[in-house]
Amino acid sequence: MFRIAVGEPYDPSVSEWPEGSLYNYDTSGHWILIMYQNPTEREIKSIQEGVANFALYVQSPVLFLLHQFGQMAWHDCPYSWWKVPSESRSLPDMTPGCHALVKTVLIDASTGIVRGLRACTFSSDFTSWLHMAIRTQAKNHWTDEEHEKAIQFVYRKYSPEKMAQNSEIKCLGGD
């Protein structure tokens, strides 16, 4: 069984990670991985205890899950259902009123050690929008080239903060 704990490696086979944020939805649910070189106590506390803001920006064929913890800046995570290994792909639940759980892991990019953990829910409306966006994405196969082209198009136009401002829907973690 896969175990994640503060003070232990996220993946014992990986000791260094590129800085950035990743969002994934697969058979294990919704995950955000945040990799910072030597995260500060402020960053750790913001992720573990700060107000969690989420936003969804869709630029077909890519959806961007945006997150902001505490006083930190907005960060974006491009996602494509087609980038998930086929054995881990899963279509999300569309049960009305569902509040999806998102697990966030802060990893020290320089060591691979977990420095913070957080679990909270998306609002019911946000969950519905996100799950519908994933299901829509799954109906249309996109090439890696189309995926990358769409990401770069958005990055030329918008910062993560602007994407959040122009997002289809937003919510607070725990709503």
Written account of the structure:
It is a single chain. The protein has helices spanning 41-49, 124-139, 144-157, 160-165; strands at 20-26, 29-36, 52-59, 62-69, 75-79, 101-108, 114-121, 169-172. It is of the alpha+beta class and 175 residues long. It has one domain. The strands form 2 sheets. Strands 1-2-6-7 form a 4-stranded mixed sheet, covered by helices on one side. Strand 6 (101-108) and strand 7 form a beta hairpin. The chain is globular and about 40 Å long.
Question: Brief overview, please?
Answer:
With 175 residues, this protein is α+β, with helices and mostly antiparallel strands. It is built from 4 helices and 8 strands.
Chart the SSEs and their pairings.
Blueprint: E1 20-26, E2 29-36, H1 41-49, E3 52-59, E4 62-69, E5 75-79, E6 101-108, E7 114-121, H2 124-139, H3 144-157, H4 160-165, E8 169-172
Parallel strand pairs: 2-6
Antiparallel strand pairs: 1-2, 3-4, 3-8, 4-5, 6-7
The sequence of SSEs as H and E is EEHEEEEEHHHE
Strand content: 25-35%
Structural class: alpha+beta
The helix content is: 25-40%
* Shape, per Cα inertia axes: globular
Count of the separate structural domains: 1
How many helical stretches? Answer: 4
- Mean pLDDT comes to 94
- In which order are the strands of the major sheet placed? 1-2-6-7
Strand count, sense and barrel status of the largest sheet are: 4 strands, mixed
Which segments are poorly predicted (pLDDT under 50) over 5 or more consecutive residues? none
The number of E-state strands comes to: 8
The radius of gyration computed from the alpha-carbon positions, rounded to a whole number of angstroms, is 16 Å
Amino-to-carboxy terminus distance: 30 Å
